[in-house]
Amino acid sequence: MSYYFAIIGTQDNPLFEYEFGSSKQGGDGVARFAEQARHMNQFIVHSSLDIVEEVQWGSGQMYLKCIDRFYNNYVSCFMTGGNVKFLLLHAPSQPASTTTSRASTSIAANPTSPQTEEAIKQFFTEIYENWVKTIMNPFYQVNMEVKSPVFKSRVAAAGKKYL
Fold this sequence. Notes:
By secondary structure, the chain is of the alpha+beta class. 31% of the residues lie in helices and 23% in strands.
């Protein structure tokens, strides 16, 4: 499965972006988005912001689960207390086939399964902890892009650990 992770600020501006692939079940951690569709990731994520704004007020939860679907791409969302949005676009490696009678237990094969939702929730929770540490830096200003290599490596480590 391929992932595109974005942190969107309070003014709907991108603060951080990172693209990676699944490291579970023999994955090499490299994103496998189709080359002609790779440029669409930002548009898909930003188009789901309208849905986030609708869902965030109806739920008291920070983790909003899978909120949008665009063809074979799914968007999951996590809201912080400061109205910063963590959005994860995840695209299954292969389209789910309906010819098999037995469902796969792989996270990559079932983008909306409870196991996948739990793994994404744990990923978001770890990223949130690192986000709080990052914005506590006295030199950080609200809605400023995050360019820290340490934060990027922690996002990569969380992606490798949970996804």
